[in-house]
Amino acid sequence: MSETIYLKQMELGPMQNFIYLVGDPATRQCVVVDPAWEIETIVQTAAADDMTIIGALITHTHQDHVGGHLFGLNIPGVEELLEKVKAKVYVHKAEREFLKGFGSDLVKVDNNDTLQVGRLGLTFLHTPGHTPGSQCFLVDGRLISGDTLFIGSCGRTDLPGSDPSEMYYSLTQRLYKLPDETVLFPGHNYGGASSTLGDEKRGNPFMRFPSLGEFLRIMGGGA
Fold first, then answer.
1. Of 36, 47, 159, 160, most Cβ neighbours within 10 A?
2. Which domains, from first to last, does the chain contain?
């Protein structure tokens, strides 16, 4: 833990999900990114570090990130988290309809909205492609990228709601403009636990396509 930020990365569940606790070590407030699979572990980890969970940030609403039924599994998620802690749930407005039943606890956000977590400022970046409301979180020089950008690859664009054209622009324009020294924390352990945007710009083929047409030929051509 640095003096300016509390950030804990946990690999939970059989799909190698990364769940994050991010907060202010001075005020002891934190948020959890994509709470799923092992809710008790998430809550106990925050408590053991003397951190209070005040929010849940959703990169996108696929069941392996928010809970629900998938491949015959009943995945604990946001609903189970709110049974244990009092927290607001932040989801991009394009996917609000996929999270039901949270009432006033649910907050719709849009591109470049910000959130204060103690003294820590966090920015929501809308990065559609994997899903319509996919978003990344930029905080203190770190990018939590969900299923938009992985180390050496990117999220799938052949699922319902996916859009390979939007993924191309999210990777080559929306995220590419971030500083090279930005530290990348992905949503799954598909190529490692962290990288930098500079390394991904240089080495990740999905950030290096010179044209949308070439990207679409590799990614299947359309939504």
1. 36
2. 6-219 (3.60.15.10)
